[in-house]
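Reading a protein record of the kind used here takes only a little practice. The record below shows the convention in full:
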Amino acid sequence: IAIVNHKQVTDFSIKIPENNRAIKQFSRQEALFELIARQNQPFVISCGKLYRKELFNGIRFPTGKCHEDEFTSHLLINKTTKIVYSNRTLYFYYQRADSITQGNHILDVIEAFENRLIFTINHNFKALIPYAASNLCWKYLNFCYEKYLNKEEYKQILNKAKGYRSLIRLRIATDLVLFIFLQHPKLYFFIKNRKC
């Protein structure tokens, strides 16, 4: 897989920025770390990549889902032995105001992150499981908060999130916020409302 940086644009006056043009080769494990632990966008999204067609044997983008690359990127990276990344911005992703990427597709994203967590567990990627669980719980948190603001029921999704609590390791302060949400969601909502 060859990966380049991308830039979202809203007009066609594109100028290729001059940067230091670093090229780096990643192993499968390093690329999965970039995708799952760092959530490094060029490793996640499908645009800005060249693939060997054989990588898609047995892998298809899911039909009817937004963020379909969230469902497949880790599977494709796991099938390859070599990933080359250039930090040069060579892909310009045109964003229309009515584009599907502008919508709220949180349920598709949550499903993709659930699949990614199951993938890390099934492949026994012990170092990546806490990151995948934390990322998924952040998606749950955002969804629950949106439901809370709209005075809708969020307990079912909260209980799902709580089921992954034991997989998360507190690494940074933001995980402490996640921990507060998982332990005391109403306290989190109260704090969040005070800050906004």
Remarks:
- Residues 129-149 form the longest helix (21 residues).
- Helices lie at 28-36, 41-44, 68-79, 106-122, 129-149, 155-163, 173-183, 185-195.
- The chain has a mean pLDDT of 87.
- The longest strand covers residues 83-94.
